[in-house]
Amino acid sequence: MDWMSPSSRPHSTLSQLGRTNHVTEFVPRMNNSPNTTLNNFSLSSSYASISPSAATFLSKKFEEPELQSTGKTTNLKIFIKINSIPKGAISVSQSPSHSSSPISHQEKLNSTNGGSVVPYQENVGGTTYFYQYPATTQEHNEETADTLQTPTSQSSSDYTPFPGKPEPSFFISEELKNDILNRNMLTLLQPDPAQYPDLPQEVDSYHELFPLEPISNQVLHKAHLGYQASMYKATHIKTGLHYCLRRIHGFRLQNTKCMSLVDLWKKLNHSNIVQLKEVFTTKAFGDNSMVFVYSYHPGSETLLNKHFSIDQPGYTDPFTNDKSTPMPYSYQKNNLLRHQQNNKLPEPLIWNYIIQLTSALRLIHSNALACRSLDPTKIILTSKNRLRLSCLAVMDVVLHDSNSAINHLALVHAYQQEDLTALGKLVLALACKSTIAVQRENITTALDVVSRTYTMDLRNLIMYLLTNQRRSVTDLMPMIGARFYTQLDNLHSHIEVLDTELSKEVQNGRLFRLMTKLASINERPEFNMETSWSETGDRYMLKLFRDFVFHQVNEDGQPWMDMAHIVQCLNKLDAGVPEKICLMSRDEQSILVVSYMELKHCLEQSFQEVSNTHELSVVDEKV
Ligand SMILES: Nc1ncnc2c1ncn2[C@@H]1O[C@H](COP(=O)(O)OP(=O)(O)OP(=O)(O)O)[C@@H](O)[C@H]1O
Questions:
Q1: Range 307-315 average pLDDT
Q2: Does the pTM exceed 0.90?
Q3: Which GO terms describe its biological process (predicted)?
Q4: What pLDDT is recorded for position 331?
Q5: What is the DSSP letter of 184?
Q6: The complex's ipTM?
Q7: Cβ(428)–Cβ(317) under 8 Å?
Q8: Which of 16, 21, 206, 300 to mutate to test the pocket of ligand 1 (most atoms within 8 A of CB)?
Q9: What's the Rg (C-alpha) of the chain?
Q10: SS3 state at 139
Q11: Nearest-5° angle of CA 51, CA 423, CA 394?
Q12: Does 347 map to a domain?
């Protein structure tokens, strides 16, 4: 239930839609050779655009802070005998035991170990287990688990995978609320026709197209696959659901054989991939375009945008770079190191990404498919570091080789090997906080930087992925080892927080339905040609009850607003408790003593009458 007044509703605009250029060499673009290895990856450029997720809100909460500051939460405890609770009615209880301050996993560890821990790891049957013992010496073991700190690594406290339990409140936490409102707002954004006059009204079964990035008119802007591509949010005409359309400009499908792969992709459903819904060709944009329809994840931004900014060392604009200017090697190395030291990502975050990426790759590879676009521009992030592969199936369609002589299984295996190499480069780039790190001439330096900063486990994983030997995504599982447990624990803790938040909203939804009933009876001007209906009998009691709940005044006649009183009264009404209250007439001449149980009966009866007469059986069912 949203307690915000309309005037305080958040508003935001799409900001930072500008594009920035980056040099990377991640995706083997225009290269569908099965023999591609680490050494013959093509150098090409990728581009980042800043997503609307930067939009933030300012919202004002009605009443809630006062409730907490005046300590009236204790008033909201309602003790109802079980036998007095009607079926479906639930009491709201705000217990002080709910209060807890967010404690990060690291803090928990430190508190149990007196702030000093020594890691110990053991490999059993290919799985690495991590243990911690209280420190007895000053010696530092470099091979630490992800939750532990190395002297050089960034404090894990800088990275909180998920926030702890929110402060006790009747309402959903401010952070979660803003996140949900932000996503809703982005989902409902409509394009300005003046700004995008060329946007078609309809494309196949979709309308309300909204560009997710500026549409470039530059001929040179053919970042992906050698074709210009654009992204749009769109609404399905029939279902009203929102989708993300990736349009490949000027592309003619030569052969429909690749559609069998599309069918395979459509079946893939995983929390770390953006699901493909359908693929079609269209002339709605005035050319031959190929459109890939994906699920829409509002507020997402690319990994490139999030972690690789243009101020990284050695950043060069691919179009303006003067190749004749020599760059000393030492300059490049020192620069890389300095940049990485100043901006390095916490190791647990990198492992978090590795777990999500390998999880997605595992499903893809086990379905005899290959991602082929493990590129920081093609991985999107939503809140809480949730990562998804966003460009699946495009390579398989756009670069489909229809030559029947080719052994497709062998081809897929080769692409899967390329995926693993791309993963190695991606992790290396994240660890060095620079896409320059994965350039062939920088890899040795970059690995050196990783060894100095992170655990050997991370370095070993990168080394494994960057070798030319035959690799498998399942081989990575023992390398990740006990970090899976940490990830699982974090996720479960987060689910618990969301569950608590959801239960609050279940209560609020129940009270909303109750108020809907009250509001449709109170002061109804006429019912069955009877103008006094709402002022007489049961309805009169409900009117006085409404005054009792919402129109209380203090001794000076000033409104006395107390959310605790309102919530308490409504809960008692919903439960139909036998407790009695005094309802005073507006002229203060008479007082009615009535129980909540009787009021509940009045409410049910009156609402039944209204619903039946006005054929609101559907509403009744829902309410
Ligand atoms: N499924 C999706 N739901 C919501 N937004 C998405 C989705 N996929 C991508 N986006 C957003 O669309 C924008 C453009 O994505 P795109 O994949 O084109 O990245 P890019 O950096 O512009 O790459 P390129 O240079 O190839 O165009 C990014 O801001 C990204 O966050």
A1: 62
A2: no
A3: mRNA processing; nuclear-transcribed mRNA poly(A) tail shortening; positive regulation of cytoplasmic mRNA processing body assembly
A4: 57
A5: H
A6: 0.97
A7: no
A8: 300
A9: 30
A10: coil
A11: 60
A12: yes
